[in-house]
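Amino Acid Chain and Its Fold in Token Form
===========================================
Scope: a single protein chain, as residues and as a discrete description of its fold.
Amino acid sequence: labelled as such and written in the usual single-letter residue code.
Position: the record begins directly beneath this header, with no further notes in between.
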Amino acid sequence: GTKLEDVSFDLRDGEVLGVVALEGQGQDELFEALAGMRRAAGGTIAVDGREVRFRHPADAIAEGLALVPGNRTDGLLMQRSVKENIALPFSAPVKAWGPIDRKMERKEVDGAIARLQIDTRAQSEVQRLSGGNQQKVTIARWIATGARTILCFDPTRGIDIRTKREIYQLLRDLAGQGHSVLLYTSELEEVQLVCDRAVVIFSGRVVDILPAEIADEPALMRAAYGMARADAATGATPDAATVAGAPS
């Protein structure tokens, strides 16, 4: 629609790509479009160089793109157990009433719980878990089901410092295993803590793409307010290869 225009970028295998923007600059619409929650009026999304179209979140999930929403209650069945929440996508491919491979499901779910160190002492209901453990459950769901690209929208908001560090390490581990992570964060210091590069959006446009080593808070804030990067006077520009493509 009218919210986004010229937001081209590449998301590479094994990369954590940060998205930085002030409130209301189009980041919500970007993630919703990539997650199949909103139909784009134009432009293209390509996965492995192949153009795809999403009419529903299930279309995005089928292409390996899964959303971890900022509001944890949007991504969880709060009155169901940890294991039920993580196992939920395993029932999606079942076309008719019939058996689910419970042995496989249990193996994948238990592996995700152990990998993310989720506290399951209150697993009778997810709503009894801490905010950090609830967020881990949302991420664990997509790890268990093998999503290639995780779309994380401000995943550490309202979470204690220790759990934040665990999530940072988890995202880096995912990248190390070849997954791609698109991470919107409202906490600018997280970019250099966890990201490889940062895309800055202002007024619905990508205005800069910075490698993490120079994406400190002053540089990000300048770009977020639509100001040119300090090195622009020297003729330096963002890496053209990172700007040329559509999200993948």
Summary: The mean pLDDT is 82. The first helix runs from residue 27 to 34. The longest strand covers residues 205-211. Residues 76-147 form one domain.
